[in-house]
Amino acid sequence: MTTVTPRGKMNNAFDPASADQLDAATRSMVDQRNRLLGPAYRLFYNNPVQVSRAKGVLLWDKDGNEYLDAYNNVVSVGHAHPAVNEAVRRQMDTLCTHTRYLQEGILKFAGDLLETFGGSLSDNGHAMFTCTGSEANDLALRIARHHTGNRGVIVTSEAYHGNSYLTAGISPALGDHSALGTFVRTVPTPDSYRLPVETLGEWFAEQVAAQIRDLERHGDGLAAFVADSLFSSDGIYSQPTDLLAPVIEAVHQAGGIFIADEVQCGFARSGDYLWGYQRHGVDPDIVTMGKPMGNGYPVAGIAVNHDIVEQFGHDMRYFNTFGGNTVAMAAAQATFDVIRDEGLLQNADKVGRFLIAGLTDLAASYEFIGDVRGAGLYNGVELVTDRDTKKPDAAITAAVVNGLRERRVLISTTGSHANVLKIRPPLVFTEADATRLLTELDAVFAQQR
Ligand SMILES: Cc1ncc(COP(=O)(O)O)c(C=O)c1O
Which residues approach ligand 1 with their CB closer than 6 A? Predict the structure, then answer.
């Protein structure tokens, strides 16, 4: 089998052309993966990690070596959380079936979830369940189009919203070889590091307004503006928080709706609010969610304003074999309860501040650290060739991530230039864990001087 360097873009991807540098056992597993899973999958790191078990914020490889997990947001309440695992096990032993039977669990969870949004989604919203974030965004787009009668969708220039045909088509992060829909327009990343922060909101709204005009001119009109309010794949832009309000106003004026993609930034990630969009003081028409929702069990969904989904529900039905099934709801409820009972929103805020302070201290010592940003336990460190030109330094970023991996601390990279360290640990990360990460990061940075 040929080992060509893949051109499908992904940050921090293992390059199969360098497989001959791996030890024999790892190389054999990589070969098997290529043969059995085919060419579209990617691994992380120059030296891929073979994980075998995990607990809390720790992972162990097959030889029993311990790794600090500062990357995984799916197991947001910690790997193998006993309360979530017990709830899933118990429910699996009792009943697992779909949403066409009356069941209490889905009603309890939908009620708890809808209460958290405030605004119109709490007053007049519904919850609909899927298995993945892609399906949630796909469903949201179908509802948006049915409601507005328009086709157009606006996203940021490095957004990722999913892997279905429709959502891959609104995901420029998949790279130049992955086709965007003809109904899609992109707006530039609201880059708070390079653009004036005081006028960023106004500038961003102008970018969106220009694309709305273009969609109207081409006869598509605007169905939806879709945004992840932490702009995760764009490079993690957590500030300023006055960006979205003027945009949403323009979107509504054009007859479109706002879909807040909370797949990454939801469920307490940002430390200040349960939902990332709440940091911007806006009231979305649809919220999509997934990833951390079941702490690893596949559960995702949307919250949608009644007025937006009314005609859709009248004209067609919605069914998803696994989405919202009894076990999915048990996992989601248990995860939700743990976030509340263990005070993980507060923990994300406290430990996130500690981490940002430590990263800012490191920036004083290393010239190649251009910017430190983030909210709660979602942090980005942008590395540049020099602070005046702010030229992205992807090479040093890759060296740092791989250097940390060798010291058994796992993070990754993000951004269109792959030059932003992406630090996104489970929400149970402690100050001691943050100190370990900062110590190792300091050691790896020192090697790059
Ligand atoms: C912002 C965002 N939206 C949607 C998705 C798609 O979610 P899933 O992989 O569960 O389909 C992702 C996945 O990375 C994401 O980051």
Answer: 132-134, 137, 160-163, 228, 232, 261, 263-264, 290-291, 300
